[in-house]
Amino acid sequence: MLEELRRRNYAESTIGTYIRTVEHFSRYFHRPPDQLGPEHIREYQAALFTRWKLASNTVTQRLAALRSNTYQDASEADRKRSATDQRRTIKRLDMAFFRQSIDRANWRFAAPS
Asked: pTM for this one?
């Protein structure tokens, strides 16, 4: 998990928070994290709100740590990253096309010199 977070270039403070969260999650259920699933995350979320009375931003951060791709196998994580990269590429292409269209429109309607 630590190597994956560093590979993703997470800040040291974020890495520490994620590791502490996973340790707490694991201790709460008395099981290793790889034996815990989405239903455990929902139960843990309820406990964070009711038992420990944490703020919603804190709970959101802790859930992000648990839902990160660190528990998924590498091939699934790579597929998700690939899909995200494709969306980003398409978005960049759309913006480039939009800018090009604006430039053409400005050229057509420019006042004669």
From this structure: 0.61
